[in-house]
Amino acid sequence: xxxEKCGNxxxxxxxxxxxxxxTVAGAAIGSPAAAADASGSSVITPxxxxxxxxxxxxxxxxxxxxxxxxxxxxxxxxxxxxxxNSGSGKDGIxxxxxxxxSDIQLNTATGQLRCNYCHREWSEAADGLDFDIAxxxxxxxxxxxxxxxxDASSVVTLKCSACGAEVVIETDEAPQAxxxxxxxxxxxxxxxxxxxxxxxxxxxxxxxxxAQGLIETFVHKRQFYAHxxxxxxxxxxxxxxxxxxxMVVDVNSHxxxxxxxxxxxxxxxxxxTTYYDADLYDISRDFDLLIDDLTLEASAEKLNQxxxxxxxxxxxxxxxxxxxxxxxxxxxxxRGFTSEKRDLNRDAVAGVAQAQVRDIARYQANQTALAYxxxxxxxxxxxGVKGQLWKSVYLPVWLYSYLExxxxxxxxxxxxxxxxxxxxTMGSVPIHMPKLLLISAIIELIGCAxxxxxxxxxxxxxx
Amino acid sequence: xxxxVLAADPLYVSLLLSSNDDSSGLAAIPLLLCxxxxxxxxxxxxxxRNSDKRHLHEEETPVRxxxxxxxxxxxxxxxxxxxxxxxxxxxxxxxxxxxxxGGGFAEQLANVKDWVK
Lengths: 463, 117
Description:
heterodimer; A: alpha+beta; ten-stranded mixed beta sheet; three-stranded antiparallel beta sheet; B: flat; disordered C terminus
């Protein structure tokens, strides 16, 4: 007997091809799956599982597929319009559209999925969530941005469509698992209520070797004051490629700003003092503000960027990503990388989003008032949101981490992060404080030795 | 906290000098020399720790503005001002930055895990 897909020779009783994973015609009869169905066992299909979750969500009174057309503030508790964006991605075995094999992986060089059997490549744009921002009205969200059910189990059981075995996927670790019987890879591509599956993904385009080079260059430029223990232990062999969760927001809004501004008209010196004359204006700006892809961390740990206690700000600093290149989520993009599950809902980041929208409005208004060279005092900044679109997205980051244990026992985790799509690099390097303090003190002494006599000289002899 | 304040030192000094009433560069030189050790420490600390770095959301987020309406009304000419820039100017203020030590959203977000049940 031979496989219809790849021609591989098979055993007479084979239910699947051990080369490409294709199901052998007729093999379902008498398979564990068929047996399970016939016996009415408790095996749950992905569709049944999802229906169960939706029932649970409805019981909790969470979001439903109801449209809302009223203007609302960011993430107000209105019923959102939910856009399903799972496309052709199915839970279970994802097969190569060309040869049917299930051995699929990201090719970092091209950013596309590649079949490891026939070597063809493909990807799917996340166009289901591509809206004209000016037409946004009310709250629209991708299905992957729905509120998380924190009680939902992180363990999902799928039935392997090749051999019928039940395969457990631990979504806290990866949305994929291998069937222990037939070795096919099973994927979760449709949204689950625990935040593990986003609406879209930007795959890695920066290879591990490139990321290692960028991190080494970054650190080598900061070697002189780097902590000796860090220098001794530094190696980029163990850097991690991780997909981190973000919320991406499009906002259709109207901004109104008013205040006062000053325009310099004259500058002159009198009695060793400089004076300025300026014209004072009342100004106002009123405009439609269409914001595309405001990006916010959707992980509680990464959103906390208090630089006194962590270096998460360097991960924030490698934004932005080329969000026009987002692709429909497919768990195969994550293969070989780690991923962090989203643990924040829209409400948790709404305050940050609101403040950032105001910042953008202020910045744009400033651009229309550049002539006021002494500055502007904006008294009123009002941004009315007409419509908003929220998407959850996995974005790729190469991370080098180093845990610094200080003499007082305090710990500080330093990151050097590389944007997995653009290669932008930022990081934090532990400092050898005694060395820096000593050299700073020497510079201070020299500066004072020159500065104090110079001050006396200027005071005594310069009129 | 101490190191973060020092890290901001170069910026503080440059603001101090730029807003000084007396714009004579000569008077600023001794001040710079007497603060040179602190400035050096702050500059090195900032370069290694990068605690001031963040995503410039206000500049880097793609934005389109439409239907712009502008209003500019002259009020009065102010004379004899001693500051080089407007008092109470807030056009460079940023509210949504996440990494301001002890300020901005940092304090609010320190307990963000409370939102995660």
